[in-house]
């Protein structure tokens, strides 16, 4: 059942976030970030929320394990960040929750910091196995840094390690597709600016930033972490044009033709992507405009 309740305050807890800012707990949890391993440092107030969350469900026979994810697990958390989690239900419990359209758990009563809450989704083991086998990049990236706070599932840690892995299958196709999409969005931006079409201008600027970014991430064989974390992922990518982030940010802050061209041409010149202009136009027609004919997943969801 989805529970929303008021937060109880631990008398021994920090009175405000300013005090909590300096409270950290070194953790034994470690995780693979594609090419390296780093230990997670979790703030004390987040760790207390995790401990209480685990205690709340550990002995419930309907739930087999608790996975901590999000910014807390990745090491990106702010003082006031919520604690994201997935809870593994038995197949029977999962089907009951899905039939009731009740797959979320949001609780404030487990937190003792201002504005704190835990925010979770109910899944089953088959969901994790499916993500490991065929998940798209954002679904895989969501498990970067994820760890089990408790588990009654044999070999859960090994399964979690299989998920946040860049999929080599289809790599060359993604490179060509992301380049072609960036090419088309640059052309659309120029057309929108010429015609004064503000909607297309704004959308093509965002899409140009997205697909030049996805192209560089794919070149580095790094997962696309979905939109919220795209700039952070690009900043950490080792192989990219020197001025990529400046061009990326300039286009988004001031959508202008010269900014769009600077971003696209900088990425185009970074290496030979193996796609001619004609091939890019043709790809857009057959794989985007005509995608309804094949029923294939849209490129935005790859």
Descriptive key words:
two-stranded antiparallel ribbon, Four Helix Bundle (Hemerythrin (Met), subunit A), five-stranded mixed beta sheet, 2 domains, disordered N terminus, 7 strands, 302 residues, single chain, Beta Polymerase, domain 2, 14 helices, alpha+beta
Describe the model.
The chain starts with 16 loop residues before the first helix and ends in an 8-residue tail after the last helix. The chain has 302 residues and is α+β, with helices and mostly antiparallel strands. The strands form two sheets. A five-stranded mixed β-sheet has the order 5-6-4-3-7, sandwiched between helices. The protein has a two-stranded antiparallel ribbon with strand order 1-2. It has helices spanning 17-20, 44-57, 70-74, 91-99, 125-134, 137-141, 156-162, 171-195, 198-219, 230-236, 244-253, 257-268, 277-289, 291-294, and strands at 24-32, 37-43, 63-69, 83-89, 104-107, 118-124, 147-151.
Contiguous helical run count: 14
Mean pLDDT figure:
89
What's the total number of strands? 7
Shape: elongated
Number of domains: 2
Overall helicity: 40-55%
CATH level-4 homologous superfamily of the largest domain: Beta Polymerase, domain 2
Which stretches are low in confidence, meaning pLDDT under 50 for 5 or more residues running? 1-39
Which CATH class of the largest domain applies here? Alpha Beta
Q: Briefly note the structural class of the backbone.
A: alpha+beta
- Give the strand order, joined by hyphens, for the main sheet: 5-6-4-3-7
Residues in β-strands, percent: 15-25%
End-to-end Cα distance: 32 Å
And the CATH topology of the largest domain? Beta Polymerase, domain 2
